[in-house]
Amino acid sequence: MNVHHINCATMCPASRRLVNGEGGLFERGRMICHCLIVETGDGLVLVDTGFGTGDCTDPKHLGKMIIELTGPRFDIEETALRQIERLGYKQDDVRHIVPTHLDLDHAGGLPDFPKAKVHLYRPEHAAAMARATLHERERYKPKHWAHEPSFVTYETGGERWFGFDCVRELDGLPPEILIVPVVGHTRGHAAIAVDTGKGWLLHAGDAYFFHGEMDAKNPRCTPALTVFQRVIAMDNDARMHNQARLRELARDHGGEVTVFSAHDPVELERFQVDEAAPHAA
Questions:
Q1: Which domain covers residue 40, as residue numbers?
Q2: Radius of gyration of the chain measured on its C-alpha atoms
Q3: Which end of the chain has the lower number of beta carbons within 10 A, N or C?
Q4: CATH of the domain at 178
Q5: 281: pLDDT strictly greater than 60
Q6: Cα separation, 253 vs 246, whole angstroms
Q7: 71 Cβ contact partners less than 8 Å away, ≥ 6 residues apart
Q8: pLDDT surpasses 80 at 182
């Protein structure tokens, strides 16, 4: 399977030094929404969607707080739909979407692909539909599923994946794509594993935010992202436990599994450099 690493939203929160660990204290930071386009023998699979075209043209439904906190650019050319079209595909070529979770900056593009099946760990679907707390009403936006997508939900079971519980045999998807629950950030947060034939990619979503958190010897995070992750987590103890397990996975199986998160521009740029290298040679 061919995999494209794309950025489906650029966000510019306050203080690059406190967010990115470099630059000026009063300079705007940079965060991204790292998504995957997976080319299969039966159409395209999206892992996360970032913001959608509807978010870019009318962002008010996202809420004032998220806009002021993250400073999104809302560039419609960064949406998954526009990037898929630039690859020569059409909207309906996206047959499946596998979100890490349904936070607004991960599920905003769902309405752009109304015919796609949306595959979710069952506790995440339940949390997003219930929106039981104020916190969850801020993060989950019903407009993103007002088109009534075909949700397919799953529980874990079967053979474990590198010691993690996982969901295999996703409906209509090749066996090389798995859901790997790593809860904490949300009640049903999951990582998505993709076997490219050359090794596994593990999109860890918001299980961590800064590349330094995967450093086996000296895990570290920037001050702003440390606070943000703790405050927004639905279960911070579970989040920290699963983050430690991901760090162990990256340490012990780095030759087989490449772990990356949703919002770190450093990690995305590493993949994009690798993708560009053969063309530059």
A1: 2-280
A2: 17
A3: C
A4: 3.60.15.10
A5: no
A6: 10
A7: 11, 12, 13, 14, 28
A8: yes
Q: Between these two residues, 41 and 258, which has the higher pLDDT value? A: 258
| pLDDT band for position 276 (cuts 50, 70, 90) | low
- Rounded to whole angstroms, the maximal C-alpha distance in the chain is 53
Question: CA 222 → CA 20, 71, 219, 228, distances in Å?
Answer: 7, 18, 11, 10
177-194 per-residue burial string, b: 16 or more CB within 10 A, e: under 16: bbbbbbbbbbbbbbbbbb
In the numeric block, the tokens 């104020």 are attached to: 134
Cβ proximity of 145 and 117 under 8 Å:
no
Burial of 151 (0-12, 13-18, 19+ CB in 10 A): middle
Residue pLDDT, tens place only, 184-219? 999 999 999 999 999 999 999 999 999 999 999 999
% pLDDT > 90, the chain: 94
Nearest CA-CA partner of 90 in 100, 98, 99, 82: 82
Q: Are 251 and 50 in contact (CB under 8 A)?
A: no
Total-model pTM:
0.96
User: Could you report the per-residue pLDDT of 61-88, keeping only the tens digit for each?
Assistant: 999 989 999 999 999 999 999 999 999 9
Task: Measure the CA–CA gap between 54 and 109, rounded to whole angstroms.
Answer: 8
